[in-house]
Design brief:
By secondary structure, the protein is mainly β. It has strands at 19-21, 24-27, 34-39, 50-55, 66-68, 71-75, 80-88, 94-103, 108-109. It starts with 18 loop residues before the first strand and ends with a strand. The mean pLDDT is 88.
Length: 111
Amino acid sequence: EGRLLWKYDLGSSIVSRPALIQGALVASAKNSREITLLDTDPQTSAANRVIDTEFVSDSEIKAPLFVESNNIYVGTQGSTVIRLRVGQNRAGRLDLTQAWCFDTKDNIECR
């Protein structure tokens, strides 16, 4: 039918392709430099749509997000590749944790 079920404004344009993981939508706005995990349930209110956010870089995120199992891989304009792990916190809600970072320019792990 093409009905709009929900929408959420991340504050700037989205240039990296969002991805689905564990029933949530992972997205990044160009100017935010963070990854946002959104609840996809149409019954969730806009005020409760964001499950978690994780700051990942001082550089823009333009590359598509890649999901494998419970991991999200993020490439940034600043020559870093970041792996975020999606897990559950003590309250049973999904959360994001940076598990690994690699600087491809200097060929070293980063923080």
